[in-house]
Amino acid sequence: MHHREYYRPSSTGHLVTRIMADARLHLWRRERRLSADEVRRSGREMWILHPTGEEAPAVVEASSIQVVLLDGSWSETSAMAQEIAGWGRRVRLPIVGASRFWLRAQQDNGRFSTAEALLALFEGLELADAQAALRRQLELHVYANLRARGRKDAAAQFLRDSPIQTAFPELLAQLQVRRANLSAFQASDGG
User: Fold this and answer.
1) How does pLDDT run across 44-56, given as a tens digit for each residue?
2) Measured between alpha carbons, how far is 173 from 169 in angstroms, rounded to an integer?
């Protein structure tokens, strides 16, 4: 994860580390370079997911690979990818369609969030349960962030095509409850 991404509430890298029990976060800074040995897990082929990589093999055993997800803005991850190019196999995934990550502008088609790249990997590895669980959490992450930013119309539009309507109906109802304005309460209370 790029060190600036660490503080962005919209980061899907944080989401991945919360959802995936074996995920580890490594902070990247240009002035403090990581080594492959700090990241590498013994006995696994390291894959670096990146759109400029080679096609993923058609058949692979999930337990035989370690995946490095680069998390940051597009320019930040490009610099990271150059630095770690020799660590392992750079792999691209066949991700199609529009990004569901509505929290940042995706300037071009074919640009997806870190979590969406992991979703595509899960699909390729036929890990349907992990894919479904991460998809629900990503959708909830995007929806809640849209609402927190006051973008209620965009949140309502996003929700129309989201599996979280049926997965989390009680939680969605709670998110839509209007909250009291604390600053107005404090002003009227003299506090």
Assistant:
1) 999 999 888 899 8
2) 6
